[in-house]
């Protein structure tokens, strides 16, 4: 992990101008990371500008300009996106001079790093494991060429760094684990929690043991495992979030009154506080899951599945790693309740927002020396 910056050094660091180039219309972990970094850097006196779009950015009063790039790359858009690379490289002309250029998605990294690096250091953040299959192989050559021009690549976990080391080399890689605003997810007193349960949970959940998951609902995460585990444990389940897999999951659970879908919600901290434990499902390419950190900060024990990225967090956060849904028996779920609050200090010490900002600020500063 990057070394920490002392408070004294932080106060004397010159004001930076950070230009973030990122285009996404989907609210996910990477987008929340971008907004948090923009907020944090601005709060520390630095100038921050986003070129592109990012859900939540303008809602937090952060400055944004258009850059005119095509859609974010995915398996469906990648072929056309690669053809647009020469054109999109010219779009860097609309980006003002800056101290640091910050990129986090493959299209921006591959297409824009070389021209931007002629003007200032370029920093990447990698949020997940390298994708497999033809799409991953297709990207690899262009990614390796672009990496020749990057100054640092911030990885959210050691597994992410290990994937990239053969391509980039260890000297450019630095691990900075994801962070959360622990104050936002602090567990409320018992009386306030009871009021949240009454206000937010369906009436027939009021006296039940309630599991929760809060995530983008994507097939790669296999959230059907969470539904099966909740039902096996005779717990009610609140599914918070939206995504392309929601319709399938709703069909899967249509026969059960014990599963409640809320859709996208802004009051996730309150929904976590109203619940009893968290069910985490991760996709193969996920990095460090902030949802697990948020749940632990809210005092919830976490249930995860063997083989999913991020399960190494569970011992510190408090919870249980299971091989399959049937292992979460009613007795096992009841035993989880004794672990409430056991991960809060771990998250505060290892994944607090100020420590995370210290690390990024130090990396930016080192790239300018």
TrEMBL record:
GO molecular function list: glycosyltransferase activity
Pfam name, any one: Glyco_transf_4
Classification via SUPFAM superfamilies: UDP-Glycosyltransferase/glycogen phosphorylase
The keyword Metal-binding is annotated on this UniProt entry: no
Domain Glycosyltransferase subfamily 4-like N-terminal: 28-184
Domain of life of the organism encoding this protein: Bacteria
Claim: tRNA-binding is one of the keywords in the record: no
UniProt entry keywords in alphabetical sequence: Glycosyltransferase, Transferase
Name assigned to this protein: Glycosyltransferase subfamily 4-like N-terminal domain-containing protein
């Amino acid at each position: 992990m990057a070394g920490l910056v002392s408070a004294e050094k932080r106060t004397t660091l010159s004001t930076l101008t950070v230009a973030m180039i990122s285009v996404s219309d989907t609210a996910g972990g990477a987008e929340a990371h971008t907004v948090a970094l923009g907020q944090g850097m601005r709060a520390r006196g630095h100038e921050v500008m986003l070129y592109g779009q990012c859900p939540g950015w303008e809602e937090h009063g952060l400055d944004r300009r258009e850059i005119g790039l095509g859609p974010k790359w995915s398996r469906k858009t990648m072929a056309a996106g690669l053809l647009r690379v020469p054109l999109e490289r010219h779009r860097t002309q609309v980006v003002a001079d800056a101290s640091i250029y910050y990129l986090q998605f493959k299209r921006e990294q591959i297409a824009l790093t070389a021209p931007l690096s002629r003007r200032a250091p370029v920093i990447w953040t990698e949020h997940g494991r390298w994708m497999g299959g033809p799409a991953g192989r297709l990207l690899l050559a262009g990614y390796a060429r672009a990496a020749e021009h990057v100054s640092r690549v911030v990885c959210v976990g050691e597994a992410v760094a290990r994937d990239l080391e053969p391509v980039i080399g260890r000297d450019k890689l630095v691990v900075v684990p994801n962070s959360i605003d622990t104050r936002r997810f602090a567990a409320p007193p018992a009386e306030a929690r009871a009021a949240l349960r009454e206000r937010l949970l369906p009436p027939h959940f009021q006296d039940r043991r309630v599991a929760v998951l809060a995530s983008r609902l994507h097939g790669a995460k296999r959230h059907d495992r969470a539904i099966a585990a909740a039902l096996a444990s005779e717990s009610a389940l609140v599914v918070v979030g939206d995504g392309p897999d929601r319709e399938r999951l709703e069909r899967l659970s249509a026969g059960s009154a014990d599963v409640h879908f809320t859709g996208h919600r802004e009051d996730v901290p309150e929904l976590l506080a109203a619940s009893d434990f968290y069910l985490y499902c991760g996709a193969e390419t996920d990095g460090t899951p902030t949802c697990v950190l948020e749940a632990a900060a809210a005092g919830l024990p976490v249930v995860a599945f063997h083989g999913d990225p991020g399960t190494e967090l569970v011992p510190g956060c408090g919870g249980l790693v299971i091989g399959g849904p049937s292992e979460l028996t009613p007795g096992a779920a009841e035993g989880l309740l004794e672990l409430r609050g056991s991960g809060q200090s771990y998250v505060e010490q290892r994944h607090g927002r100020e420590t995370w900002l210290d690390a990024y600020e130090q990396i930016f500063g080192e790239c300018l020396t």
